[in-house]
Amino acid sequence: MTTSLDCTNTSPTAATDRSRPTPRIKLTRRRLMILHSDAQAGERLLADALGAVDRDALHGILKQLLKASVIEQKPNEANLAFMISMMKSIAPRDSVEAMLVAQMVSVHVAAMRSACRLAFTDNLQQQEGITRALTRLARTFAAQIDALGRHRSNGERAITVQNVSVQDGGSAIVGNVTQHGSVIVAEARPIDAAANAEAAAGRDRPGGEDEPCIEPCIEPWIEPCMENGTVA
Fewer C-beta neighbours within 10 Å, C or N terminus of the chain? Predict the structure, then answer.
């Protein structure tokens, strides 16, 4: 019997109870098996965990994770379970995040394999090559984290201006100014004209202190089918 994944009432962007256990994956020689008493419910739980919007997306991500889990030219069940668990904990919210998070866990697994090889080799030339690969993977993982953060914040970066220079006849605000895109939020009180004139006079007097320059601070912020409860 072939079943299909019903996602009409389930969305990865909706509030999902991620405390529910995710079905385990059993690997056989030619197929995957979702270990759940209800095949459709098992697929739905996996889709929620991996941020898959439909059955095709779920099977595609599972197939890719399966290939990335390979150890000694064979898919590794424990490795696959770890990758699924990590994706669930990061909680992808849409298809872009699902693909990015799948890459993140794959890069992490590859980096740890490189670290293991580095620990077990005494050959200097091999050590240098593995170290370069490990460094690239670590940098890629850090860049992926940054990309995920930017995607979740809609690409905006918060800018805080800590010091403001006021010219003659101008006005300013005292306090921190945080800018998000085109929105500026000021936590301050306006300086009146007399205060501006006094500040300007102080700068013009000999020995007056130079005004600091503006220095913005950037704040980071298996293509299977279900049959008798199995995935072909």
Answer: N
